[in-house]
Amino acid sequence: MKVLVVGSGTMGHGIAEVAAISGFEVKLVDISWDILNRAKERMMDSLRRLYERGAIKDTPEAIMSRVTMSVSYDVARDVDLAIEAVPENMDLKRKVFQELDRVSPQHAILATNTSSIPISDIAEVTNRKDKVIGMHFFNPPPIMKLVEVIPSKYTSEETTNKVVEIARQMNKIPVRLRVEVPGFVSNRIYLRLMQEACREVESGEATIHQVDSTARNKLKLPMGIFELSDYVGLDVALDLWKVIVGRGASDVKCNMFREKVEAKQLGVKTGKGFYEYPGGKYVKPSLPADSPVRESRLLSLAVNEAAWLIHNKIVNAQEIDTVMKYGFNFPQGLLEMADNIGLDRIVEELRDIYSKGYEAYKPNELLDEMVRNGKLGRKVGEGFYKYS
Ligand code: CAA
Questions:
Q1: How far is CA 286 from CA 198, 204, 211, in A?
Q2: What is the pTM of this model?
Q3: Ligand 1: which residue has its CA nearest to atom 21?
Q4: What does each C-alpha distance from 219 to 222, 292, 309 come to in angstroms?
Q5: How far does residue 79's CA lie from ligand 1's centre (Å)?
Q6: DSSP β-bridge partners for residue 133
Q7: Each residue of 22-56: pLDDT tens digit?
Q8: Which of 10, 49, 332 is the best mutation target for the ligand 1 pocket, counting ligand atoms within 8 Å of the beta carbon and taking the most?
């Protein structure tokens, strides 16, 4: 199979690497050779790390021999799948899809790695709307196992099934959304974690370090919430926030992320965000061992969002947990955690914050109903899951 990746930045070069590791012939396109050469170095560096760890069998050189690079779309003429990973700008993405639609063969599937732009809007500029789909990878692509597969309202069942299969061939775990929603599953939940983290700090309930200490030391997440946002890029995080809220989700008034972006402190890539990263290299921030921030409070808004996703039949509880375990390396699923904490405690936190005037914390009807019916989680044998 021949795969074209358009855009060789953080996500694009990682996706190309994953495709090459799985044995596909890969073509990587970007606008300049400087950018492509930098991508090649980053791929080699990542492949060497994976090879040293025994995570891949082929040598980095053998894998890179399957990758060719180009500054022209002409290489799209014989591909089976194109994955676009250019910056999150609608006009730019539409131009890329017009080019891909013009050059690539009729059977080729055109996928976008967008995390926030509606897939249907992108599909509309092509003459193959049924073959356009969202294929959302996670940073860093060679490490994170999840791929969200997002059919637009035009995508055919055949295209969706093929993409699910291709994701499996790439050694990834696909989660397929039934209906496209802004931010998909992953970023809707991630946004809610960011919003609650932000609210706690801005309202004076806790410090950045305390929030992240609870995330890392109590919940055992690989990164704190602010730390992860620095890693993802605060501009990217703020974009997600704006897009998801701009398309109908309730907002949480909090300015810290916007202020950081305005000050051009974008996280790891600029050397400073909520923490410092000398030389623009990720280093683990050191955090206090103890924190007064309760796990139930930090997760409450994310669990409420998960309930919304289930209630609206976008995905089920298990799929949400797969997203969090394989897209964010959570040690347990979000809803497994919620069941362990107790859904009554989650709802108490939501009610408390809601009573302070934060509309987004109004308990979702599904969650409310579960608590009313005594489905309080593991302690009673049933919550989002059943326990025997
Ligand atoms: N390629 C190859 N290996 C890599 C790598 C890469 N790109 N990045 C990290 N690694 C390796 C490191 O070399 C290291 O290997 P060893 O154990 O052999 O030394 C290992 O992974 C662990 O890395 P670190 O020691 O640097 O740090 P860590 O233990 O914190 O792990 C992490 C790093 C895997 C990124 C981990 O912190 C993690 O899982 N964090 C959560 C990341 C996450 O949530 N990503 C999703 C973001 S949201 C998104 O992407 C979607 C969107 O639309 C915004």
A1: 19, 21, 13
A2: 0.95
A3: 143
A4: 9, 13, 22
A5: 30
A6: 111, 151
A7: 999 999 999 999 999 999 999 999 999 999 999 99
A8: 49
Residues 183 and 180: their CA atoms lie apart, in Å, by 9
Categorize the per-residue pLDDT at 116 as very low, low, confident or very high, splitting at 50, 70 and 90: confident
Residue nearest to atom 11 of ligand 1 (CA): 49
- The residue type of 357 is G
In the chain the domains, ranked by start, together with CATH numbers, are 2-176 (3.40.50.720), 184-388 (1.10.1040.50)
The label of the residue with tokens 């109903």 reads 369
Say yes or no: CB of residue 49 within 6 Å of ligand 1: yes
Distance CA 274, CA 271 (A): 10
Q: Report the share of the chain in percent with pLDDT over 90.
A: 98
Pick from 131, 160, 130: which is nearest to 148 by CA?
160
Please, which pLDDT band fits residue 385 given cuts at 50, 70 and 90? very high
Q: Ligand 1 in contact with 53 (CB < 6 A)?
A: yes
Q: What percentage of the chain exceeds 70 in pLDDT?
A: 100
